[in-house]
Amino acid sequence: MPTSHPKWSVALADYKRRMAGYRGEKSLDFHLSMLPDSKYLIFHGLRLIYGQFYFQIDILLLCSIFAMVLEVKNMTGEISFEKDFKQVTWKRNEVEERIKNPVIQARLQVRKLKNWLRDHNCSEVPIHYFFVNSNEKTIIKTEPRNEQMIQHICNSENLLEKIEQITKYYNSDKLDKKELKKIKRLLLTNHTPDNPDILQAYNLSPKDILSGVQCPKCSSIQMDYKSGKWCCSKCKTLSKTAHIQTIKDYFLLIKPSITNAELCQFLHIDSGNIGYKILKSMNFPFSGKFKKRVYYQTSNQ
Length: 301
Description:
alpha+beta; NERD; transmembrane helix
């Protein structure tokens, strides 16, 4: 969108929040990679349906002894946990606000997961949970005698220690190899990635989206197609593949299908022959013939 668009600041704030969460989960990979692959299964972003609604787990750790739900945040500043009302406040840049209690969020995910596993006839397994803050500069505070919260809070650097402590607590396996494989298969089969209608979510129309091919170097949408290459009129970068990301953006934002005419209009191409060559080179599945032909997005595109 143009930066002057009234929804730009809202979309940008959401993007920053989502990216912070994503980076937080990725930063845990370093610590979780130290766990033996032969013993632990690690699932990222599992989204499962329970009843009429979906629930999503940031990270799920599963082994023969127990399961562990991790509610991951990448928050800066200061996080304070209040004892009596279990409220949480987040202070950053001298601004303090109340936020959802991540420990209670994790506990709720455990309850839903237990019910989900029971409904799928899986063997019972102890499920632990933690709120993990991945930002090592963040200060976490709590009121005295708030053990109910403290025992479910940790920073990323002591997560492995928590896992080791829980592992030593149990004397025997709760799940055999066959049951582990069953649960793994069920989780992956029933996982439903979130694919929201972005335009609808922000009350936008396709006309609000800037068309044209974006330069991979300077990000300006000022690329022209000349002699089989895209040329940026701003920084003079040349690319043979700059259109690929733009077509992916079209599928994600506008709709999961496209015609040659729609491609030419969105990529600012004057020639239908060039548009046809681009679509043919990307091996999209299609239906119809000639001008009525429609090309479809695939799962890996």
